[in-house]
Amino acid sequence: MNSKEQILQRSIEAKEIFLPHLSADPVIFGFDQKELKVLLIKMNYRKLWLLPGGYVGKNEDLDEAVVRILKDRVGITTDVYLDEFGVFGKRNRSELYFEDFDDTLFHKQRFISIGYYALYNPSRFNLVPDELSESCEWIYMSQLSEIELAMDHREIIEKALLTLREKISIKPIGYNLLPEKFTLSELQKLYEAILGKELNRGNFYRKIKNLGILNKLEEQRRGGAHKSPDLYSFDEEKYAQALKNGLNAW
Questions:
Q1: pTM of the prediction?
Q2: DSSP SS3 for 139
Q3: Strand pairing of 54-57 and 18-32?
Q4: Residue 224, pLDDT score
Q5: How many Å apart are CA 75 and CA 126, to the nearest integer?
Q6: Which of 126, 168, 192, 204 has the fewest CB atoms inside 10 Å of its own CB, making it the most exposed?
Q7: Is 246 left (phi over 0), alpha (psi -120 to 50) or beta?
Q8: CB atoms within 10 A of CB 171
Q9: Which element (helix H / strand E) includes 188?
């Protein structure tokens, strides 16, 4: 079965399972080698890169649908921090991508998409593309300008990053992106990657410690040429509380 036949078959099934005109597009950010990444899929059809989005079941809550979409499309089966950040509904945003199909195709209808951003450590799971996709890969944000993104997915990614930058001052960041044990320097590099600018080391260390969400461990990072830095971990209870109530000391 070729890619067009696959989509035609999925269209028949989709009309019975999913709500018309409503979709979800999660922007999954990862962090590696001092850079921010985003998870993309390359469809068999047209060989273009897209976000791992999907449709909302008739009997699903929206948040439940996003969790299921991530599992179905890229194999993410563990908990991911998800946050809704925008609605995208330009005319012909999805119709043009499926222009080779008849107008009765489920996927070719006008869809309003709910954008979510997710934060995840790329090393914590193995990517598994669905049968409609040729591959799914982490792409560095610095490389996005070099690849062709379908539909309005570049706009969605840019809006997700802007939202993340805005929320970084009122929400804790890092639990799903860093290893269990990390240095303050590694946490600073994460903030700098998200914000796209360098931060003053002393000011950052003081502010991040004042948030009260870190536990200083009785061990250091070994192996470097310089003094071994202290290791920290997140206080899960205080981190969860800060996610719910916001930060006061930043």
A1: 0.90
A2: strand
A3: antiparallel
A4: 59
A5: 7
A6: 126
A7: left
A8: 17
A9: helix 184-195
Given a cut of 70, is residue 60 above it in pLDDT? yes
List the beta bridge partners of residue 79: none
| pLDDT tops 80 at residue 246 | no
Q: How far apart are CA 188 and CA 204, in angstroms?
A: 7
Q: How far apart are CA 145 and CA 51, in angstroms?
A: 15
For 223, the token pair is 């192996």
> Across 33-60, where does the E strand assignment appear?
35-43, 49-50, 54-57
Of how many residues is the chain composed?
Answer: 250
Query: Confidence class of residue 170 from pLDDT cuts 50, 70 and 90?
Result: confident
User: Terminus-to-terminus CA distance in the chain, angstroms?
Assistant: 55
Identify the three-state secondary structure at position 198. Answer: coil
- Calculate mean pLDDT across residues 201-228: 83
Q: Which residues of 78-87 are buried (b: 16+ CB within 10 A; e: fewer)?
A: eebebeebbe
